[in-house]
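REQUEST FORM: STRUCTURE PREDICTION
Request ID: SP-0412
Submitted by: Lab K.M.
Chain count: 1
Length (residues): 548
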Amino acid sequence: MAGGRRARVTVPGHHHGHFALLLHAHLPFVRHPEHPRHLEEHWLFEAVTDVYLPLLGLLRAAVARGSRFRLTLSLSPTLLCMLADPLLAGRYLDYLDRLARLAGRLTGDPRSEPGRRSLACFYGKRLERLRAFYLDELGGDLIAAFAALEASGLVELMTTAATHGYLPLLRSQPTAVRAQLRVAWDYFRATFGHAPAGLWLPECGYYPGLEHEVAQAGYRYVVLDAHGLQQASPPPRHGVYAPCTAGETGKAIAVFGRDPDSARELWCPTIGYPGHPLYREYHWDLGYEGDSDLLADFLPPGVKAAPTGLKFHRVTGRTDAKAPYEPAAALDQAERDARRFVAGRRRLLGSLSFTTRPPIVVAPYDAELFGHWWFEGPAFLDALIRCLDAAPDMQPVTLGEYLRRHGTAGEIRPATSSWGEQGYNGAWLRPNMGWVYLQLHQAAGELAALVNGRQQMPDRDGASRLLRQAARSLLLAQSSDWTFHLGRGAGSDYCESRLRDQLARFRFLAGALRDGRIRDEQLAALERMDNLFPDLDPRHFGCTSQGG
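STATUS: Completed
RESULT:
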């Protein structure tokens, strides 16, 4: 590996090093109280069903059996806001009921082939188990369940920017970056009762100088893609296998690097584990092949085709002739892949010998890979934990734990980087999107001026409410999710409409702040629609903000 020094470790019984799994759980804020059912709210419901509930189940089981596993888990503020929302919680139960009815109709349909009926029965039983776990064991409160895992010592929680704004492209308005970081810090502390040490940079997006904003907002460490460290100045002598310090004394943060091998083995579309022929095929879904009468009860009104999560085929290979999915065979493969993954990390750690500190392999992933995109992902994680418990030469650790024990290995100036396609800003800045950033920058500057102008004035006519709601609209417009999907086909129309709606709401509220004309029912309606960050501090958006 670039920058690393290799020498085999031969000390008997010596820990070769540490392994840090980091999962980043994030979804954009999608909430439509004006519709009884809205298709894009399914993004949250699918993630809860396929990712968060299975993850909580396997982590709670690891705690119960005394596992030495450790996980660093990033929970985005927008995801936490949705998980805490009673409206969405009620809609989630309705979603589960509709999906169970759909699976039940398939199970009892004599026209279905036996293999499909058997799989529908498999899905139906799985939904029953998940519903019981959600209500009976967790009391419908996922946030409390994550907090309990942190209290157990198995999990270290961290956060990300308020609405996952892509910071390198917001930087021309420093107040935009500052507000994204400080609103997130405040909300995490209000939710969990303590400050977050770690910040997941949205999309691992870094630009020189960002470390100062991160440090001033109160965070102590971030993670960069491998080239952010490998191309740093000076190049770190341990490559990505030890954290370094970035920034000035008193305003410095620790910077961890992503292990490229771990990334390739799970993310690469050609050689990554999720592409194995035995795993479930993500793209073939009943929602695109079932008849409309069958789907009518499940899909929102007016939607003719959309994913249901009921999938009946396996990857098979690069062919349109997909073989039936076999859950037992897929689970066996997940265990084999977990053993291969751990063996690869043990070989890597065994080849690294640092005189001053044990090396650390940092493996960050989107949490949604494990269960949503890769159905067998939770089974892989469960097997991974068991393999790590049986591997005495590789010690699982959280990122904060490693820093407390071993500190950092020298000072660097990291390189501009992201974990997006090609490694820089291109995924969020394509030729058809110049209008987005022009409007986002103008809005951030306008809000900063409004905040600064109001700070010395009494709160007449509910100006603070207006400022807070304008700030929420701006934050929501800044989400990296919208610009990522713009022009990419599926979902891009919705993403563009969300972006334009939030910018329009911001302009309306900013106008009301200037001329004082807004009816209370109009403001209340906007507050009901975009109800995130109830205690948002508008001062974070001003040029003299000193929060955090």
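NOTES: DSSP finds 19 helices and nine strands in the chain.
Reviewed by: T.R.
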